[in-house]
Structure formats: structure tokens, C-alpha cells
Write a structure and sequence with these properties.
Blueprint: H1 2-25, H2 27-58, H3 63-128
Length: about 130
């Protein structure tokens, strides 16, 4: 039974496929299709316009409004990520500068001591002469 049914379906699909191909290629089909398609597009346009007027009248956001806001939020998220990265880099740079300044401060007293010792030894040598 399954084989007979499968054969029947295969034959039907093949015959209908050929018939549909011929029908779709005909001028009459295209003419009829266009006469129904154009009014359908017009109805769709009217529905869209009516929906937009309804949304506007009751203060409801349309799909386009929500998509626009969504895009703006995505743009802001990107800008925020960029700013966050810039702040982190700036903080890292400031930390490096503070380290360098602290290193200079810790080395500076040692340099002063050395200069003072050299100066002091020179004075004592002159005094002995």
C-alpha cells in the first residue's frame, strides 16, 4: 500500500509540476496575477497608514519608532564602551606617571645627600690647606 501511495504522489507531483510551470509562464497568468497583486499591495499600504495614524493618535510607539530607539541605544552603548576604554587608558597612564614621580622623589633625596657630602668634603679640604 505504501509503495502505491508513494508512486501516486510522485506521479501527481511530476504532472502538477509540469502543469504549474506551463501555467506560470503564460501571459494570462501574469495578467491575472498582477491584477490581484497590485490591489493587495494597495490594501497593505492603506492598513500600514491607518495603523500609523492610530498609533500616533493614542501615543503608542510604532515598530519603526522602537527600532529607531533600539538603534540609538546600540550607538550609545558603542560610544560608552569607547569612552570607558579611554578612561581606563587615561587612568593607567596616570598610574604610570605617579609611579615615575614617586621614583624620582625617592631617588632625589639620595642625590641631594651625595651632592651635600661632596660639597662638604671640598670645604673641609680647603680649610685644612
Amino acid at each position: 500500500m505504501d509503495n502505491i501511495m508513494k508512486e501516486w504522489i510522485d506521479t501527481w507531483e511530476k504532472e502538477m509540476g509540469n502543469t504549474m510551470d506551463e501555467m506560470v509562464k503564460s501571459q494570462e497568468f501574469m495578467k491575472n496575477f498582477l491584477t490581484t497583486y497590485e490591489p493587495a499591495l494597495e490594501i497593505q499600504k492603506n492598513i500600514r497608514e491607518s495603523r500609523e495614524k492610530f498609533f500616533e493618535m493614542f501615543g503608542v510607539s510604532s515598530k519603526e519608532d522602537v527600532e529607531g530607539i533600539s538603534q540609538q541605544v546600540q550607538d550609545l552603548e558603542i560610544k560608552l564602551a569607547d569612552l570607558t576604554e579611554m578612561v581606563e587608558e587615561t587612568l593607567d597612564n596616570q598610574k604610570e606617571i605617579i609611579k615615575a614621580i614617586n621614583n624620582m622623589k625617592t631617588k632625589a633625596p639620595e642625590a641631594k645627600k651625595t651632592v651635600v657630602k661632596k660639597t662638604t668634603t671640598k670645604k673641609t679640604t680647603k680649610a685644612k690647606k
